[in-house]
Amino acid sequence: MSKTVLITGSAGLIGSEAARFFDARGYDIVGVDNNMRQTLFGKEASTEWNRVQLENELTSYRHVAADIRDEQAMAELFKELGKNICLIIHTAAQPSHDWAARDPFADFSINATGTLVLLELCRKHCPEAPFIFTSTNKVYGDRPNSLPLVELDTRWELDETHQFHARGIDETMSIDQSMHSLFGASKVSADMMVQEYGRYFGMKTACFRGGCLTGPSHSGTVLHGFLAYLMKCTATGMRYTVLGYGGKQVRDNIHSYDLVNAFWHFFQNPRSSEVYNIGGGRHSNCSMLEAIDICESLTGQKLNRSYEDANRMGDHIWWISDTSRFERHYPDWKRDYDVEAILEEILVTNRERWREAG
What we know:
Blueprint: E1 4-8, H1 13-23, E2 28-32, H2 36-41, H3 48-57, E3 61-64, H4 71-81, E4 85-90, H5 97-102, H6 104-125, E5 131-136, E6 149-151, E7 156-158, H7 181-201, E8 205-210, E9 212-214, H8 226-236, E10 239-243, E11 250-255, H9 256-268, E12 274-278, E13 285-287, H10 288-299, E14 304-308, E15 318-319, H11 324-329, H12 339-357
Parallel strand pairs: 1-2, 1-4, 2-3, 4-5, 5-8, 8-12, 9-11, 10-14, 11-15
Antiparallel strand pairs: 6-7, 11-13
Helix pairs in contact: 1-9, 4-6, 6-7, 8-10, 8-12, 10-12
């Protein structure tokens, strides 16, 4: 029986959570990660510390410091592992709106071409292995901003008469005729390709369109990692800049464990060419102002912050995921964490590391 789980971006937030989760269930883990996050966002975003932890903690873990765009290196790895691969979890990505505009070719090659390389090698060497892709809610572009939103004291909120109010935005929302940012466009390309390999070749593929993915293993930085970076700034006194919408923009937040647990449920009974909006939903969401209040309460310190009127292009004013589709398919899945529990764990887990880093 094949027992190898191949994880790309294995030293990142979701990849490392997946490595620990599947290791605990007796699987061999092969992690592919070349610490591109440091190249993209600088030394503070390095995932090297997390790679070291994985290698020290997990006896089943094997690290491969390769680039997913390197067709030769990836082909050699897939040829070696072959049908021993029972699952592929693809989390490697260029995840920033702002960075994508600086280098569109690199952004597209990482997010779109890298995904195609993996899909084709999966089809050739282990076509029975489910292929899980961490997509993004940014595939919907800024379409959510056309919803009827109401400004409240601490957040924007959807008009209570709208169909999405009770549970959030579902997969029926159009991805067309909206501004995605170049990052969003490259992720759309990957998302569509993952779906197509499911439909055209009959592979077991799933796109998990996440909201804010977060947790204690996140190497948060200015350009990516909202909650982790916000807590880091609050705890250490670093300056944080709130961008646009009065700080009332709303995000749902899902803990990396809850997301990987969703992957596990899909793996137990995989389907073909699935698309799931996945996130904290109405269970776990907050505005920027609300998140700041929680961080200040947990740390006992005031955030050193400033505000700029200009928001990020293509950014969402309000996003809450309706996870009903996934829950109908996998009714035993549930979320264990809400926003406050997530932020408290980020603080407790990382405070000493932040202090040592200066």
